[in-house]
Amino acid sequence: MRGIFDHPLPCPRVFEAQDIWHFDPSQTLWDIWGVQTDAGDLAQVDGASLWVMLCAPRAQDPDMRHTCARLRLLMRRDRVWHDCGNLLPDGFSPGSREWSGSTRLDLKTNVMTLWFTASGRRGEEVCSFEQRLFHAQADLVFTRNVPVTRNWRDLTQSVINTGQLYTDVARTPGIPGRIKGFRDPYWFRDPANGQGYLLFTASKPEHQSTSHYDGVIGIAQASDRYGLKPFELMPALIDADGLTNELERPHVFVYHGLYYLFWSTQKQVFNPSGVQGPTGLYGMVAPSLFGPYQPLNGTGLVLANPSEEPLQAYAWQVLPSLEVVSFVDYWGLKGRDPRADHVLKARQFGGSIAPSSYLELHGAKTRIVSTGS
């Protein structure tokens, strides 16, 4: 990552007021991902694509959304977005909140498989930072041209974290702003051998870590073809011990024979005594899933927020089509700090779908082609 500020940062355009819109002004949306096929392509159903985001009632303190997050199903048809309601039925999740994951759809059977993070425990009086990975299936049907999930079933804990390979966040949760991770499961089938895996955000266990900044990208191997049984944990795929506390929303796909691995990291979770980086989308490339990896663009940085609006978006996902989706975080600040002004913080939190960017990939080099509407 050294030398990251020696060159102009790769940035999309600055968002404007017309970029910030909501299905329902009373709701907040964040952490978007597409419903994909088993091969990773965006699933197309009846001429539309399906998406999932986290959702919560809009509050004066935007940070409160993490204490009541639910998964929300969305549809995009002819560039128009439609809200399709909560993805999971009430009381189905074993957590007190539903956090990010990934979703696959079998286009032959219309069976949807969801891997997600159950945060906390159902019924707990005080929200905890415990994170567990689960998966379940449902049938996708269309009612009056609106997608609906029915018959949710086979809720299974995807992996059991014993604390040997990754921090057990039930015992070592961290502190607000620097919580430990065991979340964001992302399903990937390796085209080289057909084996299925889960990638996830994790933290290095204390007995192996050299720093409080101990973020890693974890990986687990499926024990059956479709990832419906418990997975086997494996050693971390990427280790950022000593550099940063979080490598969030990891995802990978194969493009022109190379494996591109991406994640998001915020500026404030970098080790202040080490190499610094901006809030942005980072990535590495390798000839195989298990490496060896080299940082994209020499530093790992693929996309950063504009310097004049360093908080405008977060939680990027790169699709195999090279469209980059994210959500609008704090926009239109013009150099002001939302942490110092509660009114500004509430007013300038977007909580909506951000304009997409588009990439070009050429080996270990990337370039932002455009930012759309």
UniProtKB/TrEMBL annotation:
Alphabetical UniProt keywords: Hydrolase
Specify the superkingdom.
Answer: Bacteria
Family indicated by similarity: Belongs to the glycosyl hydrolase 68 family.
Q: Which gene encodes it?
A: sacB2
**Which source organism does the UniProt entry give?**
Candidatus Phycosocius spiralis
Q: Which Gene Ontology molecular function entries are recorded, alphabetically? A: hydrolase activity
Could you identify this protein by its name?
Glycoside hydrolase 68 family protein
Q: Does the keyword Hydrolase apply?
A: yes
